[in-house]
Design brief:
Layout (H helix, E strand, L loop, with lengths): L1 E5 L20 E2 L2 E2 H11 L4 E5 L9 H8 L3 E5 L6 H10 L7 E5 L2 E3 L3 H11 L3 E7 L7 E5 L5 E6 L10 E9 L15 H11 L4 E5 L4 E3 L3 H12 L11 E4 L2 E4 L3 E2 L4 E8 L4 E2 L4 E7 L4 E2 L4 E7 L4 E2 L4 E8 L4 E2 L4 E3 L2 E3 L3
Parallel strand pairs: 1-4, 1-6, 4-5, 8-12, 15-17, 16-18, 17-19, 18-20, 19-21, 20-22, 21-23, 22-24, 23-25, 23-26
Antiparallel strand pairs: 2-3, 6-11, 7-13, 8-11, 9-10, 14-15
């Protein structure tokens, strides 16, 4: 089975972490997010994964070897101009005759049962099957209305709460027949949400919606990125841990991380390879990427530290502070609120 991974977004809301890597390669629990996703795809029976990226394939080159370790052949497809969520998928599937095809987003953290989603698609003979999740406030989402048998009957864009009975929304994971996109001619931008799924429904195609109680969350902002770590560490989401990462009581720590005996770590905290935490430092709700250094007596709450970032002794960082790779905070400095260093 083939998988398509939508990975062409700029990741601007996650800057400065995405200044030095594409969003799907930002680490989650020690490995690039895409590496964990490849493990999940392999578990579901995928033996080939195509990453649909922007104009530059070079940053994704390491995924070829990572995929091989998991039994998945990885290739990377570029686009000379943005093709929206489905344009690159249409191009990748041109000429493919066998299926089904699993489509996943490169920035959505989920422990959805992918195998069950694919099985339902095949057994019911659907052209497309959408994973759905429930929300309390439908006004910020496109709602997918299904009948009692799970067949999609309508798409309603951002209805006020209570105006439609359905509370299920598109969760960003799909299964497609390989020719599902062939009915949309051309080679330009194409949207799954605005054009493909409504268009298939208008043509009378069978679309299924599978409601799941699995964890679904995008990692597109610093707060959501930290929340993704917290969800995995608290056991609310099953996700592969990177090699060398030990997880216990809401704390994840690489075997090479060094933490002073009197430093205080309050969950959730993730310390990557080679991270150093000095004497008397206090960390809460922190993700520190490889090589980051926290000086003695520093206080960090609600922070992400990029690779090799350094927080000076006695510094205080609170409230959505994000340090890019190699950024430095002077000793005794104080930062609060949404702060990004270097400045975006």
């Amino acid at each position: 089975m083939r998988a398509l991974v939508l990975a062409g977004g700029a990741g601007s809301r996650l800057r400065p972490l995405t200044d030095t890597r594409p969003k799907p390669l930002v680490p989650l629990l020690g490995d690039p997010f895409a590496a964990g996703l490849l493990s999940r795809l392999a578990e579901a029976g995928c033996d080939r994964a195509t990453f649909l990226v922007g104009a530059d394939a070079a940053p994704f080159a390491d995924l070829v070897g990572i995929g091989a370790e998991r039994g998945v052949t990885v290739d990377v497809a570029t686009e000379e101009r943005p093709l929206d969520t489905a344009g690159a998928a249409r191009r990748a599937l041109a000429g493919q005759r066998s299926g089904p095809v699993l489509v996943a987003n490169g920035d959505i953290l989920t422990d959805l049962d992918l195998d069950a989603l694919v099985s339902a698609h095949v057994e019911r003979g659907a052209v497309a099957t959408l994973a759905l999740t429930r929300v309390e406030d439908t006004s910020a989402y496109g709602v997918v209305v299904t009948d009692d048998g799970g067949e999609v009957r309508a798409f309603v864009e951002k209805p006020p709460p209570g105006t439609v009975e359905a509370d299920t929304i598109n969760a960003g994971t799909y299964v497609l027949d390989p020719d599902a996109l062939a009915v949309f001619p051309g080679d330009g931008p194409l949207s799954f949400e605005r054009e493909v799924f409504p268009g298939l429904l208008d043509r009378g195609a069978r679309l299924l919606g599978q409601v799941s109680g699995a964890h679904f969350a995008d990692l597109g902002t610093p707060a959501r990125y930290r929340a993704g770590h917290a969800a995995v560490l608290a056991g609310r989401c099953r996700w592969p841990h990177g090699q060398g990462m030990a997880v216990e009581a809401g704390l994840a720590r690489h075997a090479t991380a060094e933490v002073a005996a009197d430093a205080r770590l309050e969950a959730p905290v993730t310390l990557g390879r080679g991270v150093r935490v000095g004497a008397g430092a206090a960390l809460r709700d922190v993700v520190a990427l490889p090589g980051a250094v926290v000086g003695a007596g520093a206080v960090l709450e609600g922070c992400v530290l990029g690779e090799g970032a350094v927080v000076g002794e006695g510094a205080v960082l609170r409230g959505d502070v994000v340090l890019g790779d190699g950024a430095r905070v002077p000793a005794g400095d104080r930062r609060e609120g949404l702060v990004r260093l270097p400045e975006a």
